[in-house]
Amino acid sequence: MDKQFQAPQLNLETAVQRADAEGIEFWFARDLQAPLGYARWENFQTAIQRAMESCEASGHAILDHFRGVTKLIVHGKGGEREIDDFMLTRYACYLIAQNGDPRKPEIAFAQSYFALQTRKQELIEDRMRLQARMEARDRLRESEKALSQNIFERGVDDAGFGRIRSKGDQALFGGHTTQAMKDKYGIVKSRPLADFLPTLTIAAKNLATEMTNHNVEQANLLGEHAITHEHIKNNESVRDMLGQRGIKPEKLAAEEDLQKLERRVKSEEKKLAKRTKTLPPHDDNR
Q1: Which of 2, 16, 92, 170 shows the smallest number of beta carbons within 10 Å?
Q2: Helices then strands, each counted (H, E), the chain
Q3: What's the rounded Cα separation, in Å, for the pair 17 and 21?
Q4: Residue 257 has what DSSP assignment?
């Protein structure tokens, strides 16, 4: 095993607890804080809270996987005090890793460690791809929403916004219209093109949209014609920038349908949850 992975694996394996009567493996959150790269308990609690929300959103009872407990610790000259902690199942640990700071190498390792063996690597890779594309897609959605609201106040209705966005796509994709790109990728008319674009292209569309939003306000542009011209120029600028690095957006291969990828990841995570033994029903203040 690579030396850089030995230490975190040993720490995670050392931290595991087992309830002998039920044969349940679990971890105390305080024991995982340092191995997962968190210096402060308060910051680690944020990741735990997000994981609990993910657990509930997936249809699983939080108390089956996250159990608040109180522990006595010795401090100073033999004095004792109570601290809050959590008992966590493997599934809970997996969710914490998924909701942790992705910049931490310890989090990346933990995502793999806490996934069960069946399709482990595929699940991690799918989850990482989904997270990257979803974040880019959400940013584009927010910037387009802001632009739509901005230009509505400047005399452009929803139909006009659609035409502006279409002209922008045509500039970004080297003359290919939105529908032409859908036809190229085999996308049905009712589905958004962005749900099938690679993360890089989604980010490019977002950058051009943010530039348009900024310049519309700064130059106080009014009417569909002026705003369309601005959006086209911004998409052309982004295209030129990509072209300098040998990238042509219309040549990039389509990615898997974002909705399909999300459904598969959620399905695999539900299977992982079902294979994880839940915490015992009684409180355990170990």
Answers
A1: 2
A2: 12, 4
A3: 12
A4: P
Distance CA 205, CA 8 (A): 39
Task: Indicate if 91 and 197 belong to the same structural domain.
Answer: no
Q: pLDDT digit string (tens) for 11-42?
A: 555 556 655 445 667 888 998 888 888 889 99
Reported pTM: 0.57
Q: Do residues 135 and 46 both lie within one domain?
A: no
| 276 within domain boundaries | no
Domain count, the chain: 2
| Residue showing tokens 């901005």 | 150
Q: Are residue 193 and residue 254 in the same domain, yes or no? A: yes
Q: Give a yes or no: residue 100 inside a domain.
A: yes
Q: How far apart are CA 173 and CA 183, in angstroms?
A: 13
Q: Tens digits of per-residue pLDDT, 251-268?
A: 999 988 888 888 877 777
What residues make up the domain containing 96? 3-114
